[in-house]
């Protein structure tokens, strides 16, 4: 299991934590979708955003170009775990030292030991979380959370006693930290973000992702809790309201492929999800998209792209909030290199999600790598919203770092990612 070192960058403003992250080489990536989007949960029409205001940050790493993860601590003294930061779920769980002997994933990851923590409080409520590729069962417990530069938050989390899928065995992170809305949380547990705000450790219920998908550089990106890093995007941020405060779901007006093909013509829902590596859309529309870009069907719904054709392929443009967000072929083609062998796969996948009355698209890491995304839960006065801006090319942000940091609040915490 990969572990991330936490560290403070000397160049950062006071109170702002920078944490290095690692990025796993894309040649080891997987396109399996962790979550079972085909079976959406029953969700109420409205969720209740929590009040509060304050920034902080947490370290992230990237595994198989599908999971961005970083290090947290649980207990006193902190026991360190790597967790995937997932905007499509809302619980925190890690493997337990008390896990079932035949739960194979447990033996390949760090395990929480309640006897080694002086601040541990038993809860004992059973929990179960179903993912698209497996299920996690365990018990709830309470202890102190350390995340980025934030210490002392008392959180209820899951100790996983049984992980049913081999996917969890090969997964680099030990567990998952959900960044979705409270309504998604199993057993009504307050999500970690809400707890940080309610306990006064984070000013604002806001976080942002900068995901670096370039395998040639060591920096894998940042997760910023409480704000965003203006050095990493080209202003302005375009904000759009969250339409269903459960998943981070917004309205998308249209999708264009070059100048000839229009998809999502009557409007559709779009869910921004760090737990999905690709862009997912309705089967018929994704089939038409691949016909337009010359995609060749492969197994399991994947499409091969001729690598030599990448410079000639059309842009795919998403109209959100009245603004066009363009993806070039360099953005949406996933490229592997192993020795002299080069393989190019489409970053679009088909999946029909039963969620009337509008079609649903999922904007995963292919989109989130091209556009810095600010997730703002809002407060009692304003609803939840999402901000989008084009990610600044690598290297271009370094000269602006000093200037941009002057715009940070003193209590912002930032976590950086490194490639491994």
Automatic annotation (TrEMBL):
This is Napsin-A. GO terms for molecular function: aspartic-type endopeptidase activity. Pfam families: Asp (PF00026). Belongs to the peptidase A1 family. Residues 68-389 form the Peptidase A1 domain. Disulfide bonds join 99-106, 264-268, 307-344. It is found in: Secreted. May be involved in processing of pneumocyte surfactant precursors. Coiled coil: none annotated. Keywords: Aspartyl protease, Disulfide bond, Glycoprotein, Hydrolase, Protease, Secreted, Signal, Zymogen. One of its GO terms (cellular component) is alveolar lamellar body. The active site is at residues 86, 273. GO terms for biological process: membrane protein proteolysis; proteolysis.
